[in-house]
């Protein structure tokens, strides 16, 4: 069964996978180069990463048909590491990222994805889009009008060319057209070659040249942790999109492990950390890619093109790449979240916008996600912390009915709802519409019971559900003889 | 009269309007069977997963978009089936329609996304050109 399905995953769709893999390889080259430039490293680092990750993930990934390579989200996280400590530390951080991701996979942390609010995920992709766009703006510094015309031309071709044919990925066309124009007119616009070295050679194995000590770990660990989390976030989101597009299921923990293995391989062969790519995966599936073979073909064909065409690739004007990246950022941004802004709950919109803004200002996707999660947790707590207490007199007995969640955020409101100075001699507190969640909730009930009792009132709790009653049984002090409120 | 009727829908106001016309056709024949197809392209897939993530919630959200049409079908007592397809709306609906023998395919002249239409061409045009059954385009 398993062997059969693995065979299916590899050779169930050979023709579609090979064709789609070629399309993806062509679309990957400009992105791999552009993301290297964002990270501040030679184009080779992104290209080697894309080759290593795509090929490795084809073998060990959990989601056949998904494309992983060097990505913008990851590139943005490594900018300061590269600037402050250099390339070798990036390779070391990439390997550690892989180790952490394998750990996440083994511990089956993929299931915790459900705790990340949707608004945070939307804020995440929107911030990613804005950051990719902003990273292009520095290419315009000191640029001549030629640059502006070329970028505008590239964008026009990208959006109009699909009307002619969809067989060729449209971003590739302006790359070719503008490169040809630039070479023929001998225009002196900035090219890929000006951004760093590009060697037509296969990647080689080497251990990053960093001192193996605690000092190094202290430098790279924060980066690796952020890379590992952001990488898995984007990978698992992409895997779910591919699941949906192909109407098949995938193993998310296997994918987490696979991403880790792929990053370790990338780090050992001179590549930067990467993850799954939403855009490329959608292109792959749309072009007919379904199986593991598609990612393998994409990676190897990309490397083949670099080996053969390396000296032409360096002549690609930056303007063409900037055009492609502007398209990538437009495609990444979730425009439906702007349209839906009026309809979605205000707190969701605040979380989404906060996640986006914090990310854009800190240039750190993990910080934005973290802030977004905390903010939505606070909103959630605030929303469910409303307790309602109603009271009525029945046969000389006062009955308080509590509705809602009794926990640390709602105890103030709960206690304030009680009248401790009344002249009733018997009180019943009805919890049948309530749930007691924590120590603070029990302490508040203690406080109410003991205070009433001190005033000579007979108190009875009723209607507690089993978990609440167990909790009170375990923690409450008012049951114990001679109960007193503690000092705090 | 038309018996097997295919309605291509995406939940947009246009698609609801064209569905109404299709349902009007169905009402003329007590034996009529309506199939409502909704094709999910990569972009919609991406948005839906991003906004709902969980597969069952995503499925529910998609069915809810077709609810206005479902409501009319129920009101008029027409027997129907909802079908959600994966793929580019044009080719996916053409393939679905040509694999079965429908008596008529009804589609709105415009869908949800004007920009996409400008870039990729209109779905209704593709359906009219490539579906073998008669096609009614509702303006």
UniProtKB/TrEMBL annotation, chain A:
One of its GO terms (molecular function) is secondary active sulfate transmembrane transporter activity. It comes from the Bacteria. The chain crosses the membrane at residues 44-61, 89-107, 119-137, 143-161, 168-185, 220-241, 261-279, 291-310, 316-333, 369-389. GO terms for cellular component: membrane. The keyword Membrane applies. The keyword Transmembrane helix applies. It is found in: Membrane. Keywords: Membrane, Transmembrane, Transmembrane helix. InterPro entries: Membrane-Transporter-like, S04_transporter_CS, SLC26A/SulP_dom, STAS_dom, STAS_dom_sf. Its main location: membrane. SUPFAM superfamilies: SpoIIaa-like. Gene3D superfamilies: STAS domain. It is a multi-pass membrane protein. Residues 387-488 form the STAS domain. This is SulP family sulfate permease. It comes from Cytobacillus oceanisediminis.
TrEMBL record, chain B:
It holds the Pfam family Usp. Residues 1-139 form the UspA domain. It comes from Cytobacillus oceanisediminis. Gene3D superfamilies: HUPs. InterPro entries: Rossmann-like_a/b/a_fold (IPR014729), Universal_stress_UspA (IPR006015), UspA (IPR006016). Coiled coil: none annotated. Belongs to the universal stress protein A family. It comes from the Bacteria. The lineage of its organism: Bacteria, Bacillati, Bacillota, Bacilli, Bacillales. This is Nucleotide-binding universal stress UspA family protein.
């Amino acid at each position: 069964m398993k062997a059969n399905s693995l065979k299916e995953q590899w050779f169930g769709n050979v023709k579609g996978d090979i064709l789609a893999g070629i399309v993806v390889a062509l679309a990957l080259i400009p992105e791999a180069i552009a993301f290297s430039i964002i990270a501040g490293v030679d184009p080779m680092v992104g290209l080697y990463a894309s080759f290593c990750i795509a090929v490795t993930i084809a073998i060990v990934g959990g989601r056949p048909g998904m494309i992983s390579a060097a990505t913008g989200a990851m590139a943005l996280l490594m900018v300061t590491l590269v600037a402050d400590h250099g390339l070798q530390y990036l390779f070391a951080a990439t390997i550690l990222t892989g180790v952490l991701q394998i750990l996440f996979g083994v511990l089956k942390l993929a299931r915790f994805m459900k705790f990340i609010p949707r608004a945070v995920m939307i804020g995440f992709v929107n911030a990613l889009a804005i950051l990719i766009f902003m990273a292009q703006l520095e290419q315009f510094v000191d640029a001549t009008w030629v640059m502006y015309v070329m970028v505008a031309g590239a964008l026009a071709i990208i959006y109009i060319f699909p009307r002619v044919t969809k067989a060729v990925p449209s971003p590739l066309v302006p790359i070719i057209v503008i490169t040809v124009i630039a070479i023929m007119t001998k225009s002196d616009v900035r090219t890929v070659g000006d951004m760093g070295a590009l060697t037509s050679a296969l990647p080689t194995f080497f251990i990053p040249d960093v001192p193996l000590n605690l000092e190094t770990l202290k430098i790279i660990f924060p980066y690796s942790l952020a890379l590992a989390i952001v990488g898995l976030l984007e990978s698992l989101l992409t895997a779910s999109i591919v699941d949906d597009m192909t109407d098949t299921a995938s193993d998310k923990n296997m994918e987490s492990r696979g991403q880790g293995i792929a990053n370790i391989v990338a780090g050992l062969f001179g590549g930067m950390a990467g993850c799954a790519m939403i855009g490329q995966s959608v292109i792959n599936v749309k072009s007919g890619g379904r199986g593991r073979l598609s990612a393998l073909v994409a990676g190897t064909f990309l490397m083949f093109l670099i080996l053969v065409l390396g000296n032409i690739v360096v002549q690609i004007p930056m303007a063409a790449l900037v055009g492609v990246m502007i398209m990538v950022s437009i495609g990444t941004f979730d425009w439906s979240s702007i349209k839906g802004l009026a309809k979605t709950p205000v707190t969701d919109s605040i979380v989404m916008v906060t996640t986006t803004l914090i990310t854009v200002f800190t240039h750190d996707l993990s910080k934005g996600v973290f802030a977004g999660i905390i903010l939505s947790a606070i909103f959630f707590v605030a929303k469910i912390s409303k307790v309602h207490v109603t009271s009525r007199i029945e046969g000389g007995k006062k009955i308080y009915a509590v509705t809602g969640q009794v926990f640390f955020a709602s105890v103030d409101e709960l206690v304030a709802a009680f009248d401790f100075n009344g002249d009733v001699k018997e009180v019943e507190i009805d919890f049948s519409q309530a749930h007691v969640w924590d120590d603070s909730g029990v302490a508040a009930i203690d406080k109410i019971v003991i205070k009433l009792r001190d005033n000579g009132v007979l108190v009875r709790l009723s209607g507690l559900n089993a978990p609440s009653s167990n909790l009170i049984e375990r923690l409450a002090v008012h049951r114990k003889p001679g109960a007193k409120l503690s000092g705090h | 009269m038309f018996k097997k009727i295919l309605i291509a829908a995406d939940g947009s106001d246009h698609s609801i309007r064209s569905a109404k016309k299709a349902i009007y056709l169905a009402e003329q024949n007590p034996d009529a069977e309506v199939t409502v197809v909704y094709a999910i392209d990569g972009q919609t897939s991406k948005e839906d997963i991003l906004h709902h993530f969980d597969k069952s919630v995503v499925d529910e959200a998609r069915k809810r978009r077709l609810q206005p049409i479902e409501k009319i079908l129920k009101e008029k007592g027409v027997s129907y089936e909802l079908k959600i397809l994966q793929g580019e709306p044009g080719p996916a609906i053409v393939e679905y329609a040509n694999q079965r023998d429908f008596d008529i395919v009804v589609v709105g002249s415009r869908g949800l996304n004007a920009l996409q239409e400008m870039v990729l061409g209109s779905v209704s045009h593709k359906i009219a050109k490539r579906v073998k059954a008669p096609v009614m385009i509702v303006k």
